[in-house]
Amino acid sequence: MNSARRCSTLLNQLCVSPRGGSTTRRPFSPGPWCHRPGVGAGGLNGTVLRPKPSGISTTAAAAVCPMGGNSSSSSSRLFGTLAQSLNSAPLVQPGPYTEESPDHDPDQDLAALDPDQLLRECEEALQRRPARPHRDLVYPAGTVPCHHKRNPSIRVMQWNILAQALGEGKDEFIRCPLDALNWQERKYLILAEILTYRPDILCLQEVDHYYDTFQPIMTSLGYHGSFLPKPWSPCLGVEQNNGPDGCALFYRRSRFSLQATAHLRLSGMMLPTNQVAIVQTLNCRATGRQLCVAVTHLKACSGWERLRSAQGADLLRSLRNITSLGDFQSEVASSTIPLVVCGDFNAEPSEDVYRCFSSSALGLNSVYKLLSSDGQTEPAYTTWKIRASGESRSTLDYIWYTHDALSVDCLLDIPTEEEIGPDRLPSYHYPSDHLSLVCDISFREDVSCHSSSGPIGGLSEWTAYPETIMK
Questions:
Q1: Which position has the higher pLDDT, 24 or 188?
Q2: SS3 for 160?
Q3: What is d(CA 167, CA 181) in angstroms, rounded to the nearest whole number?
Q4: Which CATH number does the domain housing residue 455 bear?
Q5: For the chain, what is the mean pLDDT?
Q6: Where does the record place the Endonuclease/exonuclease/phosphatase domain (predicted)?
Q7: Comparing 10-14, 122-126, 184-188, 465-469, which segment has the lowest mean pLDDT?
Q8: Pick from 460, 361, 366: which is nearest to 406 by CA?
Q9: Which helix (H) or strand (E) is 259 found in, with range?
């Protein structure tokens, strides 16, 4: 079967519209994965398993029913039972990472897709829609993008893609036509955005079409994926939902091998919460160096600032334990593993949780501050929407990185108000109420092609290049 036919087959059979039709699901077989007390699995055979704390036996899991299927109500009830069981389980902190190399993932047996061909198919399917906002990659002025074979840059993409059930059923985007949210076309917009930038690491939030769309497609594009649903997803309260939403983390198998994975349920004020995080330690095949990547989605809505701060502190504690393990075979711990944390924090830079991350002992800096003239100011917005309650423009999404160990080679700029349009987000030309964030990072070296200005720069030191300069 040629690549064009493979792309069409995958999109037509695995990504059928959930409304008014059934969703074909491919059985998902587990590969080797890290299992230890307190760390849960994100899904096997199209199911969602709750984490297995110490002394708690794993119960039967419920299959995810497609939106529009005949079993949607029973699916919601079953997910509710799982969530209630999880709520009653004690919160267990992640134990030490165990090394593993799941180089053979059974899902790699899916036929490989040509990303260029798949992008063309997405663009053909979106011909009736206006073009997505144009965005430039921004580089430090006076330098040429550096791509050493021994230390190639790593492209990271962070994106809250908007859960389909929430977009159609709860979020009340009053200026967005319901037709613009139709999954049959919106999925192509999401895939086109991902395929345009071709990240090596992809961190997503509000994913409620993991098993029927993102997992098979991204696997066929050469990625390894991990998914962790919220214990009690608001999607389950929407009629004909497609199961719970959650966080997903993908990495390109040609660039990284997996050392270990932790699925975390975040705590706040000593209590388990509904928010989760995925943490993976990866080994860079080109450099042999380790990189720890985390994706999370903190509690939404105003009035929950203290809970978000507590969730952030809990995540930082776990990340400190994970990245400072060092060499298990040595009595002396090795240096801290470099860290990238992506997420929708649902918090403006003025909140405590932001200050907690920016002042952390982990030495984290926010990538998107580098777009500002002083290198210290976040963008004016990463989400802009109009609901029945009014218009909201906020900075909620971040990519954090260990600035002493990693450097930012370039990042994707933020669309202007005119490019976003008067009806804001989402819209016919953009699939989510949150903008994607993209950056290229690399491991710091003693001798490199980066400017000597260090991790903090300003807009006056940066040059914009067309979006066509892509990996």
A1: 188
A2: strand
A3: 7
A4: 3.60.10.10
A5: 78
A6: 157-434
A7: 465-469
A8: 366
A9: strand 256-268
Contact (CB, 8 A) for 192 and 376:
no
- Inside any domain, residue 22: no
Query: Residue 319 is part of which domain span?
Result: 108-465
Q: How many domains does the chain have?
A: 1
Q: How far is CA 344 from the centre of its chain?
A: 9
The pLDDT of residue 7 = 58
377 part of a folded domain: yes
Residue 31 lies in a domain: no
Side chain identity, residue 98: T
Distances (CA, A) of 305 to 104, 162, 246, 308: 42, 22, 21, 5
Write the pLDDT tens digit of every residue in 235-291.
999 998 999 999 999 999 999 999 999 999 999 988 999 999 999 999 999 999 999
Residue 389, classified by CB atoms within 10 Å of its CB into exposed (0-12), middle (13-18) or buried (19+), is: exposed
Total length of the chain: 471
Average pLDDT over residues 122-134: 92
439: tokens are 């950056």
- 191-211 mean pLDDT: 98
Provide the pairing of β-strand 383-387 with 364-366.
unpaired
- The answer as to whether 64 is a domain residue is no
pTM, two decimals, is: 0.77
Q: Which two tokens stand for residue 168?
A: 């159609």
Interatomic CA distance for residues 338 and 326, integer angstroms: 12
